[in-house]
Structure formats: structure tokens, C-alpha cells
């Protein structure tokens, strides 16, 4: 049951951080009203994915608040702080899921047997696609203008990697990596030194993020079947 609870809380986190969080909230995180609005979303999405109001949600929202405060006030901006922030959030979700695995069985949605599996897939795809976008942007910031096509391609490759590895098709995931390598080889010729560096760094962090999301989730999936 802990894996089911993790799936519901993880999806709630991804929705709160990557779907519903606005630019205003991100830019104004040091303002109490913006931070409060974001934590309100964190609580609301947990209620949304479980259709319950469990006391453990307050504990997880409080942990989320403190992690965000540390990131906002004590960590330098950049990729390292971003990755550390997300790792702490995921660790807190896993901790609550282990301490309170009954959260999902107590949900009225628990009667829908395939729902936790769908939650995990949806959360993984969103986290890989959208979360990776921000990671790439932080790494290549100041190295030239990005392109809309590059962003969409990044979403696609990370989402596909996630689906393939979660689905148990590692050979096809390897094929995606190979195709990406071929694309890089063909693209290098038409770019200057700065463009090549940007392409290499962006592609490396994109693939690394996709794999870092997909592999652990693929290891959890057998617990949900």
C-alpha cells in the first residue's frame, strides 16, 4: 500500500509544482502570500488525488514549506539547488508514504484498482517532461537562445523514455538514446562552438533527467501490479 500512497502523493506534488504553480508564485516566492498560495496548492492537489483530507497532508505540506524556504533563502540559484529541492520533496513524500501507507486504502478512489498505476505513469511522464525542461534551462542559461522545437523534442524524449522504462521495454529505451545520439551527430555540423556546447549540455542533462526519473519508478512498478 505504501507504493500506492506514494503514487497519489507524487502525482499531487508534480501537479502542484509543474502544472498549477504560476510564474507569479515562482518569481515572488520570497513574499509570504506567494509561498502561502503555493502551499495551498500542495494541500489542494493531495486532496484532489485522494478525495480525502488526511492529517498527514498537513505534515507533508509543512515539510514542503520548509524545503521551499531553505531553497529560497539558503541555496544559491542554479541546477544544484533545483535538483536538491526536488530530491528532498520526493524523499519527504516517500517518508510519509512509508509511515502512513493507509492514506490510499482510506481513499474512496482506492476502489478503482488501476488508478495508482495510472497515477504513477502520469506523474513520471509529467515530472520527466516538465521537470527536465527546467533543469535544461538552468544548465544552458546564458549560452544562447533556445528554440521551441528543442523544448518540445526534450519533452518528447524524456516522456517516451519514462513510458518505455516504466512499461518494461528497456531495449526500446536504448533505441531512443541511440536516435538522440544520431541526431546530435548530424546537428553538430551546422552549429558554431557555442551552439554545439549548448546542444551537448542540454541533451546530456535532458537524457540524464529522463533516466533518473524513469529508472527508480520502473523499480517501484512491480510493487503496484
From TrEMBL:
Key word Lipoprotein present: no
Protein name (record): DUF3307 domain-containing protein
Keywords: Membrane, Transmembrane, Transmembrane helix
Keyword Aminoacyl-tRNA synthetase included in the entry's annotation: no
Transmembrane regions: 6-27, 39-67, 87-105, 117-138, 158-179, 199-221
InterPro entries: Phage_phiKZ_Orf197
Amino acid at each position: 500500500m505504501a507504493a500506492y500512497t506514494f503514487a497519489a502523493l507524487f502525482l499531487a506534488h508534480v501537479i502542484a509544482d509543474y502544472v498549477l504553480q504560476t510564474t507569479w508564485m515562482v518569481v515572488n516566492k520570497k513574499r509570504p502570500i506567494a509561498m502561502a498560495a503555493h502551499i495551498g496548492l500542495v494541500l489542494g492537489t493531495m486532496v484532489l488525488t485522494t478525495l480525502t483530507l488526511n492529517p498527514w497532508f498537513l505534515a507533508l505540506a509543512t515539510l514542503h514549506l520548509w524545503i521551499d524556504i531553505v531553497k529560497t533563502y539558503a541555496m544559491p540559484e542554479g541546477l544544484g539547488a533545483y535538483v536538491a529541492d526536488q530530491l528532498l520533496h520526493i524523499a519527504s513524500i516517500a517518508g510519509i508514504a512509508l509511515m502512513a501507507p493507509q492514506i490510499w486504502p482510506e481513499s474512496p478512489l482506492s476502489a478503482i484498482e488501476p488508478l495508482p498505476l495510472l497515477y504513477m505513469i502520469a506523474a513520471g511522464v509529467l515530472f520527466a517532461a516538465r521537470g527536465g525542461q527546467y533543469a535544461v534551462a538552468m544548465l544552458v542559461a546564458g549560452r544562447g537562445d533556445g528554440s521551441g522545437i528543442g523544448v518540445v523534442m526534450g519533452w518528447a524524449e524524456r516522456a517516451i523514455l519514462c513510458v518505455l522504462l516504466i512499461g518494461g521495454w528497456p531495449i526500446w529505451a536504448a533505441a531512443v538514446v541511440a536516435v538522440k545520439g544520431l541526431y546530435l551527430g548530424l546537428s553538430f555540423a551546422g552549429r558554431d562552438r557555442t551552439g554545439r556546447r549548448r546542444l551537448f549540455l542540454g541533451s546530456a542533462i535532458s537524457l540524464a533527467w529522463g533516466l533518473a526519473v524513469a529508472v527508480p519508478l520502473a523499480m517501484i512498478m512491480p510493487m503496484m501490479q
